[in-house]
Every structure is written in structure tokens, then in C-alpha cells.
Design a protein that fits this description.
The complex is a heterodimer of chains A (502) and B (537).
Chain A: H1 2-7, H2 24-49, H3 58-64, E1 71-78, H4 82-100, E2 105-110, E3 118-123, E4 128-131, E5 134-138, H5 146-158, H6 166-171, E6 178-187, E7 198-199, H7 201-215, E8 221-229, E9 239-243, E10 246-250, H8 253-257, E11 276-283, E12 304-307, E13 311-315, E14 322-323, H9 329-343, E15 353-354, H10 362-393, H11 401-420, H12 425-443, H13 456-501
Parallel strand pairs in A: 1-2, 1-3, 3-5, 4-15, 6-8, 6-11, 7-14, 11-13
Antiparallel strand pairs in A: 4-5, 9-10, 12-13
Helix pairs in contact in A: 2-13, 3-10, 4-5, 7-9, 10-11, 10-12, 11-12
Chain B: H1 2-18, E1 19-29, E2 35-46, E3 63-64, H2 70-79, E4 81-90, H3 95-98, E5 109-117, H4 124-139, E6 151-152, E7 171-178, H5 185-193, H6 209-212, E8 217-227, E9 231-242, H7 244-247, E10 255-256, H8 257-261, E11 274-280, E12 287-289, E13 295-297, E14 300-304, E15 315-317, E16 335-342, E17 348-357, E18 363-371, E19 376-386, E20 389-390, E21 395-401, E22 410-418, E23 422-431, E24 448-450, E25 454-458, E26 472-473, E27 477-479, H9 488-512, H10 520-536
Parallel strand pairs in B: 1-11
Antiparallel strand pairs in B: 1-2, 2-9, 4-5, 4-8, 5-7, 6-7, 8-9, 10-15, 11-14, 12-15, 13-14, 16-17, 17-23, 18-22, 18-25, 19-20, 19-23, 21-22, 24-27, 25-26
The chains are: A alpha/beta (502), B alpha+beta (537).
Keywords (chain B): Membrane, Signal, Transmembrane, Transmembrane helix
Pfam families (chain B): Gpi16
Protein name (chain B): GPI transamidase component PIG-T
Chain lengths: 502, 537
């Protein structure tokens, strides 16, 4: 065809650049518009494939790290003579403020009383007792170290958690606004002849534990369930011991750690996610009875023990076939003490006794409320900081609106707790508990795990077959056009040069 | 002192009356040499009421149980369930040789149905979902997959076995079957934990998983019902058809508890109100070995496990038999049902149900199909042939709920009339749908198990009173659905990317191609020059 065109002049060689779609300018426009579309589409592509990561209020979370809950405590001091009271007051202020700082207390010694304030009455005599929010302190005849004694006792009552050892602290369960209490009467082997087949648990709870539940209601709510099991074998063999010349069986401290045979015992229903505290009344079988009161190799003589953060166990040998309310009194008093220990109700300082019939005094309850509020505040803060850190560290982690909302609400609750602390410790506890719930819900939000299993490499592996093959002609076109443009420019410049040289 | 004792005695009698536990084992030798053993452990919570659904939002009262299983009780309370039936079975029940079962729920796989009161903040479906998940956790079974795609409400066939509380206005039924879910030892362990005496004393000692799961047929059941005036009753049942001929070396069908279960009863359960072993004695040939029975009725003898000497090992011998001869003729049972799926096509098929009524009287029976949308019926193609003659008048459809693909199963309830001494065949065209890529199970090529059909023969003579209608389950079906090549998505991605790239490339080239006029003479000269250059080099 080219031959005919060249040899037959009647058809002039067409100047192709004159045709619209063959003009260089148009071609360049087409290529440019392709690239324009690609560039315009990039943000859209980026937006549709990027992970939804809302920004968390990390500044606010970091700002809270330095803050701690602190509770002002008002103590009214009565020590007979005015002069004596003043001196004692100064001593007391010095002592307590030094000791109580770690517990976030601001102790103020005052003359007058105000609602919710404590009073310390220094008397003659030896008796040291607590009644409501009043401490009666007999200094006896040793007036010299009276100030120190008063200060020590008051500090111990106001901030008992400061002096706890690690293992004592470890016993306390994590805070939850609701616990499930599972009471179980466990017979090791009911068909061996020695067994308690039924118990009046309903009446016993009403008689011995109801008051405790009511008083603890500002901290926790309780769901209660109970059951009886007739075959609950131990996973180990109790070793025989001699007690007062008689054969018995004993438990070593190592046995206690494996006492709960979770494979065979079903101790609680799992109908909710509330933490469960177990209270087990264990009746050993006739072949293993009686369990001695003295556990082997252990100094404490007791038929009950606590498993930290799990619950309490009471051993009962030779029970009647039916345990009536009166027969359960000792057991349920032990359960009550175990419950209080597990929930972190502090003991009274040594030498101090309670004048009340209840299991714990106002001093102890207040101290627990303050302690729990502080713990919740610290834990919630820690959780929030971990979320922020985690989100910074893992770039593929999505942060949705629900996580952000929970974090914000937790921060608001923490602020509210800070605000409420000076006026009411129970309100501070409420807010701090809310903050804890919200922050842990945000931390365990299942949405944050979604894209960890779909890494970006996968995405590229799927897209490359399309994008690589599309990009190749686009890039080739632009490179070719650039070369053509440079050649054209050089060609345009050369005649100029030649003209100049001429 | 006497007063205190009296008081204690009174208290004790009250507490023991609140909950009662009884256990029973029925052993009946079958004509094919097997022994059906059906265990039933019944706990009655006296004067208890199912939870009022309207009060579900409020906090529940504390639950205190002695004999009643706490874990199950809490599930019932949390979802306000009035009646509950869960069965997990493996194998096909042979109605002809084994007779009608003691526990009627013998459909293969898992079956769960519950009656729930209405009027709660949560709908019945939400509570059904919670119930499923809770039971799945309790019994380690995949009941969570009994979702909306398998849930129906066949009220005609699954009437409540107990009473429904009058106070609550209306009750809803939810029913689901999962034929591919088999029972195994991980289901028996939690089941045993619900028993007051576990498997450590009393009749439950015999529940030895090694033997039970080796049986020709085995299944467990949990049945909860409310009885007006009595209370809430939980019946934990286990049924197994054991084969002593298979165990024995000398081909004899003699059996004893120790040969069947590899265990004997060493001690009785201390809290059982009654504890009986009933042995059905065949008309002739068999003698009962040791010990002396507690009661002897016509055709059966009974042992009171609490009173007889232990260890107790009941047995039966056929002294006149040198070895057991397997009966080759099957006795015709009153109603024989065979259900099959015909056609090798992956799109179409035909469901066929053959019913043989060998009785001398006409039988009416209800017919229930709860079919997942994996098989869809063409109801217009339903044909009934009675002894070779078309008789479409023998079937009357009571209700039909068509399936919704990917969402809802179909429910067909019909009434069949079987003339005396006749064979009736129902056929219906079915279509197999195409599943989505993600809907296939991991073992896609195995096919899908389809739930059994349920027939309830209606007794014409029954008048008034509580009529106990017996359900008859057919065998399950296996349907083969079209299965894709599972590397398909990647092939599709690569293929479509290649196509798009090709189209894009050619369009782009057409738009940007530069046409140049090449003068041939010049080109030739240039080519020659080039060649010369090359040669010179």
C-alpha cells in the first residue's frame, strides 16, 4: 500500500499530524487526562481501602496519669483538757499526714464535728474500741507515748491497706459491681455413709449473711445460688496423721493448692459473666474422716481456708444427715469472714475491738470504699493508657466509633470521680467503677481485632494483577511522549544554532 | 428437746419433699439378639413454676437446689423456658426389630424443641438463640448452628408433653434439628455431671462410655416439662441398643449387666427416692440369673436397687440355645416408612416416601417435613400412588411454609390416610439450590444431612383425656449439592484483571497511537546503509 502511495503522486502523502486525533497536542491531552483520572482516583482508593482509625483523646488520657484520687478526712479529737487536745492534735497531724499520703488521704484534725467525720476520744483506762465512726482510746497510764499510740491507731484505721503485704493484697478479688456467690455443699462420697444430704441454706443465708450483703450494697450487688453435690472426689489422697492419739487425716499446704478438683466438681452455673466467688462446705467421706483440725505442717489450726480470688472452703466432719440452720451457724460465720477477706474488707488493727454486733465497722467500710475507688481509678487509667499505646503501636488496628465513645465516656467518668472525691467517697467509687467498666469494654472491643488477620500484603497481592498490567502502558506512553518531546525540542533548537552559526 | 427434734424432723421432711429424684433402667431383649437399655433419671422440683417471661427484665430470685441440676436450672430461668426437649442420637432406630422406643425422640442427630411463654421484652427468637447457645456450652454440642435456617414451629407434631401455665397468655414453639450432630463421650461427661449421683453410685454407675458408644444405637435426652400441681420435672435419659452377640465369643445372646456395661452396681444412690431396674422377659426360652427379683409382674420383673444385695448384676440366659440364630424374616410392624431421595442430577431430584400399613384397619397419620432450604419442594408435583393406583385424595396438606433461600427452612405439615393393608407412595419433585461460596462446610464433598421426617399415627379409638401420640422418625437423607472449585475466587480475580487490563490496553493504544508515514524508498536505502555499516564493522 505504501508503495502505491509513493509511486502514484495523485494521492498526496497525507500529513497525518493534521488529522485531529493524530495531533501531538491531542495525544498529550489524552495521556494527561488518563493520568489526571488516576491521580484523582488515588484519594478515593486510599479512603475506601484504608482502615477506619478514629483519633483517640490520648492527650487527655496522658494528662490524667499524673492525677490521683485523694480524699479529705475530718477527725474530731477529744482528749479532756484543752491543752492536751491541742498538743495531741499537732502530733497527730504530723504523724497521720506522713503515713496517709500513700493512701491519698488528707487528714484534718478539727475541734467541731461535721457529718461523716470521725471522732477520736482519748480516755483513761486500757480499753480500745470502735463504735460507729468513733474510736474510744484508752491510753492507760502511759501518757508519754500517748500521742504516738493514738496516731498509729488512727492511721491504721484510716488507711489499713497501706500496711498490707503482697500476699494479703493478692487475696482480694478484682472489683466488680456484681458478684455471683455460689454456695455448695460438697459430699466427698455420700454413699459411704457419712454425708449431709440437705441443708437449710436459704434460712442460713437469711440469718447469717443477709446483714453483710445489705451493708456491702454500696460497693457490690450479689447474685446467690446454691447446690448440693453427693459425689465430689478429691484429686489426691489425704495423708493419715495422729491427733491426740487418734487416727485422722490431714492436709498439707501443698494439698490445699490442689484441693479444688475442677474436673469433677461443677461448682457454679455459667449463666452470666459476673465473677464467681465459691463457698464450699466439704464433707469428707468416712474413709477419709475425720479431717484433723490441724493441717499437717501448718501452724494455723483451722478447718477452713481461703483460696485467693476464688473463694473459701470449710471442712466438716461427721455431719448430721440434714444440716439445720443452727448447725450451719459456725460454717456461715466462717463464710462471712472469708467473703469479707476476699472482698478486701480490712481487719481492725491489733488490740482494737469492735463494740458493734456487725462484722465490720464504719471505719473499715469507709477505708474499703476509698481503697476500691483509688484502685478502680488507677486501673481504669492504666487500661486507657494501654489502649492508646496499643493503637499507636499496631497500625493495622481499626478504631471504631464505639471504642472512641467508650474511651471518651471513661475519661468523663474519671473526671467525675476526681471531682466527687473531696465531697463523697461513695460517689467517687461509683464513677470510678463506671470508668473501669467502660475502659475495659473499650479494651476488649472485638472490632479492634478485625483487620489484624487481613494484612495489607494480601490486598496488594490481589490488586497487582490489575494495577501492574494497567500501569505498564500508561507509564510507557508517558516515557515515549517525553522522549519525543525532547527530540522535537532538540530538533527545533538545532536549526536555530545552525542559523546562528551561519 | 423433744420439740426441737420434732421441729427438725418437720423441717427435714419439708426439705426432702421439695425435690425428689428417681432413677429407672428398663432392659428389654430384642428378637435380633440385641438388648435395649433405657435409663431415665427424673428429678421433680415440687411446686415450682416456670419463670414468668414478663418478669425477665427484673432480677431473678436466688436459686437454691439440692437434687435439681443447677447449671440446667439457671439456663431455664434465664430464658423463661416452660418446656424443653433435647435429644442427641447416633444411628438409625430399627422400629421393626426393636419395637417402639421408651424415649420417643430417636431422630438421628441433634433435635431441640422448646415451648416458651410470650410477653417478655426479649422475643421468643432471641430467647431461643440464647437457649441454643447456653445448651451448646453446657453439653459441648454444636447446637449453636441450629439457627434461623433450621428453626421452625411445627405445632401439630410437637405438642407440649407437660402443661403450659395458664397465667401466661400464649406460648410459642421453636424446633430445630441438626442431623449431622452425633452424640459422643464429650456430651456424656456434662450429662453425667447433671445427675445427683454422677456415675458413682446407683444405676448411673452403668453409664460406661466405652460400652455405650460402642452400641448399635445410642442417644441421650434432656426433657424438662411443667406439670400442673406437681412442679417442674427434669428427665435425663440415655438409651442404647447393645449387642451381646457381638461381645460374646461363643455367638450366644446371654447377657448380664457386667457383660453389657463392663460394670455392675456396687452401691445405691443415697438420695434416690426410687431406684428400679425393670427387665422385660421374653415369652419363652430365657431364664433370669441371680439375684431374686423384688417384684414379678406378667412379662417383666423388677429390682429395687436400694434393697437388693450388692454388687447387683442382673443377667439373662438362654440355656437351650447352642448359639444365637439371627432371624432372617423381619416381622411387619404396624407402620413401615421408607424415605429416599432419587435422581443423580445436581439440580433436580425426587423425594419418595413409601408407607406400608399392614394393619387390617385404615390408619390416619400426620406427616411433617422440616426441610432446610437446601432442598426445595415443588408442591404441585406431589403424587400419591396407593398399590399402583393414583389416589391424590389420600393426602391433605394442612400447612406449608415455603423456604426462603439463605434464611428460612420450609415446613410441610400434611395428613395422610393409609387404607388397610396397603402400600402408599408419595413422590414429589425437589430442586437443589446453588449455595454461596461461603455457605459450604469444610467437608463440602460429603454432602448435606437432611433432617428426618416425623409421622404421628393418629389413634382413631382415642377419646378424651391426655392423648399420648407417638412420633415415628424416618431415617435421615444425604443430599449432594453442586460444589464449586474452591480456588475459584482467585481464578476469577486473575481472569477479570487480565481481561480488564487487555481492554484497557487496547483502548488506550488506539487513543494514543501515533501513525507515521514511512517512505518505502527511504526506508529501503536506510536499511541498505545500515547493512553496509554492519558489514564494515
Amino acid at each position: 500500500m505504501a508503495d502505491t502511495a509513493a509511486e502514484n503522486p495523485p494521492i498526496p502523502p497525507a500529513d497525518l499530524s493534521k488529522i485531529t486525533f493524530e495531533s501531538t497536542q491531542n495525544r498529550r491531552r489524552i495521556i494527561a487526562s488518563y493520568w489526571l483520572i488516576v491521580i484523582l482516583a488515588l484519594p478515593l482508593w486510599w479512603k475506601t481501602t484504608s482502615i477506619d482509625r478514629l483519633s483517640l483523646p490520648d492527650g487527655r488520657a496522658r494528662a490524667l496519669t499524673e492525677k490521683h484520687l485523694s480524699f479529705p478526712v475530718h477527725v474530731k479529737l477529744e482528749a479532756g483538757q484543752e491543752q492536751h487536745t491541742r498538743i495531741l492534735g499537732e502530733e497527730l497531724t504530723r504523724w497521720t499526714n506522713h503515713a496517709a499520703q500513700t493512701s491519698g488521704l488528707i487528714v484534718k484534725i478539727e475541734r467541731g464535728s461535721r457529718p461523716g467525720s470521725y471522732s477520736v476520744v482519748v480516755e483513761d483506762g486500757e480499753d480500745v474500741k470502735v463504735d460507729g465512726r468513733t474510736l474510744h482510746l484508752g491510753t492507760g497510764d502511759r501518757h508519754a507515748d500517748a500521742a504516738q499510740r493514738v496516731a498509729e491507731t488512727v492511721t491504721n484505721l484510716l488507711a489499713p491497706h497501706a500496711s498490707l503485704t503482697a500476699s494479703e493484697e493478692h487475696r482480694t478479688v478484682k472489683y466488680s459491681s456484681r458478684y455471683r456467690l455460689a454456695f455448695t455443699l460438697l459430699n466427698e462420697d455420700a454413699s459411704s455413709g457419712q454425708a449431709a444430704l440437705s441443708w437449710d441454706v436459704r434460712e442460713a443465708l437469711e440469718a447469717y449473711l443477709h446483714g453483710t450483703f445489705d451493708r456491702l450494697s454500696i460497693l457490690h450487688n450479689f447474685t446467690i445460688e446454691s447446690q448440693v453435690q453427693y459425689h465430689a472426689p478429691l484429686a489426691f489422697q489425704p495423708r493419715p496423721v495422729k491427733v491426740a492419739g487418734q487416727d485422722a487425716h490431714g492436709l498439707t499446704p501443698e494439698d490445699l493448692t490442689v484441693f479444688v478438683n475442677s474436673a469433677e466438681w461443677t461448682l457454679a452455673s455459667s449463666s452470666s459473666n459476673d465473677p464467681v466467688l465459691h463457698f464450699v462446705l466439704f464433707v469428707p467421706s468416712s474413709s477419709n474422716a475425720p479431717f484433723s483440725d490441724k493441717t499437717v505442717g501448718h501452724s494455723a489450726s483451722s478447718n477452713a481456708f481461703i483460696l485467693p480470688q476464688w473463694g473459701g472452703i470449710v471442712l466438716l466432719s461427721n455431719p448430721p444427715g440434714h444440716l439445720a440452720v443452727s448447725a450451719l451457724e459456725k460454717t456461715f460465720q466462717t463464710f462471712q469472714r472469708q467473703l469479707l477477706t476476699l472482698l478486701g474488707v480490712p481487719d481492725l488493727p491489733p488490740g482494737v475491738r469492735s463494740a458493734q454486733a456487725e462484722a465490720f465497722t464504719e471505719w473499715q467500710l469507709d477505708a474499703l470504699v476509698r481503697q476500691r475507688a483509688r484502685q478502680n481509678f488507677e486501673n481504669s487509667k492504666e487500661t486507657l493508657n494501654s489502649i492508646v499505646k496499643l493503637v499507636h503501636q499496631i497500625e493495622n488496628m481499626p478504631v471504631g466509633q464505639d471504642v472512641k465513645g467508650d474511651v471518651q465516656d471513661a475519661l468523663i467518668a474519671l473526671d467525675a470521680a476526681l471531682e466527687a472525691a473531696p465531697s463523697s467517697s461513695t460517689q467517687a467509687l461509683q464513677h470510678s467503677a463506671d470508668a473501669l467498666t467502660l475502659s475495659s469494654r473499650a479494651f476488649f472491643n472485638p472490632g479492634m481485632l478485625a483487620l489484624l488477620y487481613f494484612p495489607a500484603e494480601h490486598k496488594y497481592a490481589v490488586y497487582t494483577p490489575l494495577f501492574a498490567s494497567v500501569a505498564a502502558p500508561l507509564i510507557a506512553a508517558i516515557v515515549r511522549e517525553l522522549i519525543a518531546w525532547r527530540k522535537a525540542r532538540r530538533a527545533a533548537r538545532q536549526p536555530e544554532k545552525r542559523a546562528r552559526a551561519d | 428437746m423433744i420439740l426441737t427434734l420434732l421441729f427438725l424432723f418437720a423441717v427435714c421432711s419439708i426439705c426432702s419433699a421439695e425435690e425428689t429424684f428417681s432413677e429407672r433402667l428398663i432392659l428389654s431383649p430384642n428378637r435380633d439378639g440385641t438388648v435395649t437399655s433405657s435409663f431415665a433419671f427424673t428429678t421433680l422440683l415440687r411446686d415450682a413454676q416456670p419463670r414468668d417471661p414478663a418478669k425477665l427484665a427484673e432480677e431473678d430470685e436466688s436459686q437454691h437446689y439440692t437434687l435439681f441440676p443447677l447449671a440446667l436450672g439457671q439456663i431455664l430461668r434465664d430464658n423463661a423456658i416452660t418446656e424443653l426437649h433435647l435429644t442427641l442420637n447416633a444411628g438409625k432406630w430399627d422400629y421393626q426389630n426393636w419395637g417402639y422406643p421408651e424415649e420417643e425422640g430417636v431422630g438421628t442427630g441433634a433435635e431441640l424443641w422448646a415451648w416458651m411463654g410470650e410477653g417478655a421484652m426479649q422475643t421468643a427468637d432471641e430467647r431461643w438463640k440464647n437457649l441454643r447457645n447456653a445448651l451448646a456450652g453446657l453439653f459441648c454440642a454444636s447446637l449453636g448452628s441450629l439457627d434461623e435456617q433450621r428453626t421452625t414451629s411445627p405445632v401439630l407434631t410437637f405438642q407440649p408433653e407437660g402443661d403450659l401455665p395458664q397465667a401466661s397468655t400464649s406460648h410459642e414453639l421453636r424446633h430445630g434439628t441438626l442431623p449431622s450432630e452425633n452424640v459422643c463421650t464429650e456430651n456424656l461427661t456434662p450429662f453425667l455431671k447433671l445427675l445427683p449421683c454422677k456415675a458413682r453410685s446407683g444405676i448411673a454407675t452403668l453409664l460406661n462410655p466405652h460400652r455405650l458408644f460402642d452400641a448399635d444405637w445410642h442417644g441421650m435426652g434432656v426433657h424438662v416439662r411443667y406439670l400442673e400441681g406437681a412442679g417442674i420435672e427434669v428427665r435425663l435419659a440415655f438409651q442404647a441398643v447393645l449387642n451381646p452377640v457381638r461381645y460374646s465369643g461363643d455367638k450366644k445372646r446371654d447377657w448380664s449387666l457386667s457383660s453389657l456395661f463392663d460394670r455392675s452396681i456396687e452401691r445405691s444412690c443415697p438420695v434416690a427416692g426410687s431406684s428400679d431396674i425393670v427387665v422385660q422377659v421374653p415369652p419363652f426360652g430365657a431364664i433370669i440369673t441371680e439375684p431374686a427379683p423384688s417384684a414379678n409382674n406378667a412379662g417383666s420383673i423388677a429390682y429395687d436397687v436400694r434393697r437388693v444385695d450388692k454388687p447387683l448384676d442382673v443377667g439373662m440366659r438362654w440355656p437351650d440355645e447352642a448359639w444365637f440364630e439371627y432371624p432372617l424374616d423381619a416381622p411387619p410392624s404396624a407402620l413401615m416408612i421408607r424415605r429416599t431421595l432419587k435422581g443423580s442430577d445436581q439440580y433436580k431430584g425426587r423425594l419418595s416416601v413409601v408407607l406400608t400399613n399392614s394393619a387390617m384397619a385404615e390408619v390416619k397419620t400426620s406427616y411433617l417435613e422440616t426441610m432446610p432450604w437446601l432442598l426445595q419442594f415443588y408442591l404441585h408435583s406431589l403424587r400419591v400412588i396407593c398399590d399402583g393406583i393414583p389416589r391424590d385424595d389420600l393426602v391433605s396438606i394442612i400447612s406449608y411454609t415455603p423456604p426462603v433461600p439463605h434464611a428460612r427452612p420450609s415446613l410441610l405439615q400434611a395428613l395422610l390416610t393409609l387404607p388397610a393393608n396397603s402400600t402408599v407412595e408419595l413422590t414429589m419433585d425437589v430442586v437443589k439450590p446453588f449455595l454461596r461460596y461461603t455457605e459450604h462446610p469444610p467437608d463440602a464433598h460429603r454432602g448435606w444431612d437432611l433432617p428426618p421426617a416425623v409421622f404421628v399415627p393418629l389413634d382413631a379409638n382415642a377419646t378424651g383425656g391426655r392423648l399420648r401420640l407417638r412420633r415415628v422418625y424416618t431415617s435421615v437423607l444425604l443430599v449432594d449439592l453442586a460444589v464449586p472449585d474452591f480456588s475459584m475466587p482467585y481464578n476469577v480475580i486473575i481472569m477479570s484483571c487480565t481481561l480488564i487490563a487487555l481492554i484497557f490496553g487496547s483502548v488506550f493504544n488506539l487513543l494514543t497511537r501515533k501513525f507515521v508515514v514511512v517512505s518505502l524508498a527511504k526506508a529501503k536505502r536506510a536499511a541498505v546503509d545500515n547493512n553496509n555499516h554492519v558489514r564494515r564493522d
